[in-house]
Amino acid sequence: MIDFHAHIDLYPEPNKVVKEIERRKMYVLSVTTTPSAWTGTYSISKRYPRIKTALGLHPQLAHERIPELPLFDTFINETDYVGEVGLDGSPEFSKHKKSQLAVLKHILKSCSNSGGKIISLHSRRAASDVIDILEEHPDAGIPVFHWFTGGKGELKRAIQKNAWFSIGPAMLKSKRSIEMVQCIPEDRILTESDGPFAKVSGKPLMPWDVESAVIGLSRIWNMTPSNTQEILYSNFRTLIESKS
Ligand code: MN
Description:
Elements: E1 2-6, H1 14-23, E2 27-30, H2 38-45, E3 51-53, H3 62-65, H4 69-75, E4 81-86, H5 97-113, E5 117-122, H6 127-136, E6 141-146, H7 152-160, E7 164-167, H8 175-182, E8 189-191, E9 199-200, E10 203-204, H9 210-221, H10 225-241
Parallel strand pairs: 1-2, 2-3, 4-5, 5-6, 6-7, 7-8
Antiparallel strand pairs: 9-10
Helix pairs in contact: 9-10
The chain binds manganese (II) ion (MN).
């Protein structure tokens, strides 16, 4: 199974989570929320080749962590993966839009200078703005929208920009999201947990809970879970090999 957006460092016992990921032979993108977390988070899973660590600066922290941008540039050459980055236009964070824009533009420039990255993107209530900024930075790499909740028009634009989408169990609960997923080409989809932030029935999701997203996708695609897995693995290989 593939979890292309998990906050391993934010679980109470990250080492146990990593061991279970290894036991299940899962592929995981371990995203970070601040450049200062990079070194510690990378060290949790560096012995496990199936777990990759992404360098991030979460948009909800952008206004506080602007001083860490030089640190971002220090570490950017150590990984092919960037995330979690993006914009958050929800009411409690939209007042920091200026800082968020400055941070995302800096990050995408840094990605371009470093040869392009695979980028796990947050775009809550800000999908159009994120797509606009991606257009300004065509060499930044391959965007993977995580938990996309934009409108159909925005989704269409993102697909035209060759974006990918990581989809979690929480996203497959609403009728609206299921209709969105139906509009995404099968070969641009990966699974994610977004744990421990994302919860189902009040319980933080674990990386292996992506299994229920696989089942949800198999219903949407009208095929068996094992055929669904095959498509997801093939997508994953295509995405990863684009960087090697
Ligand atoms: Mn997240």
